[in-house]
Amino acid sequence: MAKFDPRGRKVKILATLGPASRSPEMIEKLLRAGADAFRVNMSHGDHATHAETIAAIRSVEKDIGRPIAVLCDLQGPKLRVGAFKDGRAVIRHGSHFTLDRDQTPGDETRVCLPHPELFGVLHKGQRLLIDDGKLRLKVISADDNAILCSAEVGGVISDRKGVNVPDAVVPVPALTEKDRRDLAFAVEHGADWIALSFVQRPEDVAEARKLMGGYGALMAKIEKPAAIDRLDEIIELSDGIMVARGDLGVELNPEEVPPLQKRIVAATRRSGKPVVVATQMLESMIESPAPTRAEVSDVANAVYDGADAVMLSAETASGAWPVEAVSIMDRIAGQVERDPGYRKQVSYIEILPDHTTADALAQACAAIAETVTLSGIIVFTGSGSTARRVARERPSAPMLVLTPSQKTARRMALLWGAHAVQTRDIGSFEEMIAKGKRTALRQGFGSAGSKLIALAGVPFGTPGSTNLLHIVTLVGDELKRHQPE
Questions:
Q1: Residue 479: pLDDT above 90?
Q2: CATH 3.20.20.60 residue ranges for the chain
């Protein structure tokens, strides 16, 4: 098996697995092309298929000797219209159309809306978007039994098309019964991250976290305008954030999404938690071997903004060119990070450290990296909190994360600049320095004469005790003194 070297970039790539890519052979190809973590979309497929996919990831992980993050993405509540007597109907522009609770098949004037919770929250002037916004209705009046609308944009409507309600907080839980079953499955199969869809309020996050019972990390997907109003609270309760631009782009005007993306990325970066930019990044590569120039710019902008990870969806799950999509995303990210102007742009956010020793040392790491030529920053951590603090500063040097926890090592696959290695715990300062230097040489973080920063906490094994920063110089014979890990 060929050696798996650290990436030549700091931003991570999250690739969705599906029919085109879930075999062990394809998973390894995607990893070698540049993928760092894999998404399992619980909206499609059954538990047996997902279990095989996760087992394949773990098998490849063992073969290549690198920790890999598995993210299980819950479907979330889906609002849909009922059925039509002919399977479809045409709603004319400017005509009236009613959504009601009558389960009789619909026609060009009405259809059942099998979501009674919506009837009490919609008011005159609010919008209903059908089929990803292809049809746009405006509410004229609403009561407990019917919602009368005018068709601002008409067209063909067919059975069970999705409904978006951008102007109201919909009183539905973020976790459906299916989501609860899927969440239990994800926990049982050792998912490192669980993504919660259609978050509207902090309570949605709290409910999911309670059901997780302390297993896995929780990523809140921001795809509802209502979530923006309580963004800081949602970030605080989450372990990470995903900018899910699909539904966000349906419910908002297109021109509103880019500044919101920057706002969400900036707010999450300040918290020190990972932020993923997702949806339609290289959409044309589902069918084409090359992306459009606009898509290349989209990926590049997310990298310039300092996102921890960028995500591929159908491009790798069901597209014709999954390996090429990952490879091109890897090349775009690498080119951006080699841009002389990248450091200035990625540091546009002012990060104010908390008043703790650990935050002060993390900030010092970044400052030293700008002054002294470093080949890396060695971080010893159990929970990953020290690594997140360092990554928040977006230092110029890459980060080698040493942890005794397999769980922590895997989660680091979505953290900016982190290359995690699982290793035995350390018991003394001398052992820490020796092990850090050996691992740095073995993992390609410099050569004889290179300088690195070592960051850790004393006494060792005490969570949250980061209080030590030490600059080390690699010596060529370190590997000769190698001790089994």
A1: no
A2: 12-76+173-345
Place of tokens 């990831």: 57
Q: Which CATH class is domain 357-481?
A: alpha beta
80, 88, 180, 263: the catalytic one is 80
389 in catalytic set? no
C-alpha–C-alpha distance, residues 184 and 51, integer Å? 12
| Strand 110-112 versus strand 217-222 pairing type | unpaired
Which SS3 state, helix, strand or coil, does residue 32 take? helix
Task: Name the pTM for this structure.
Answer: 0.92
Whole-number Cα distances in Å, 41 to 44, 73, 154, 181, 263: 6, 5, 31, 14, 26
SS3 state at 402: strand
Beta-carbon contacts of 383 under 8 Å, excluding residues fewer than 6 positions away, are: 405, 408, 463, 464
Confirm whether 279 is a catalytic residue: yes
Return the CATH class of domain 12-76+173-345: alpha beta
Q: What 3-state class would DSSP assign to 314?
A: helix
Domain with CATH 3.40.1380.20 in the chain: 357-481
Alpha-carbon span 90 to 53, nearest angstrom: 41
Residues 100, 81: Cα–Cα separation, whole Å: 10
> Which residue in 7, 110, 161, 221 is the catalytic one?
221
Query: Of 3.30.1330.50, 2.60.120.380, 2.40.33.10, 2.70.40.10, which CATH number belongs to 88-164?
Result: 2.40.33.10
Question: Which residues touch 104 (CB under 8 Å, ≥6 apart)?
Answer: 112
**Residue range 138-182, pLDDT digits in tens:** 999 999 999 999 999 999 999 999 999 998 888 888 899 999 999
Catalytic residue among 16, 268, 279, 439: 279
* b/e per residue 391-424 (b: at least 16 CB within 10 A): bbbbbbbbbbbbbebebbbbbbbbbbbbbbbbbe
- Out of 12, 39, 273, 435, pick the active-site residue: 39
Q: Report the mean per-residue pLDDT for the chain.
A: 93
* H or E stretch covering 370: helix 357-371
Q: Is position 124 annotated as part of the catalytic site?
A: no
pLDDT digits (tens, 9 = 90+) for 64-108: 999 999 999 999 998 999 999 999 999 999 999 999 999 999 999
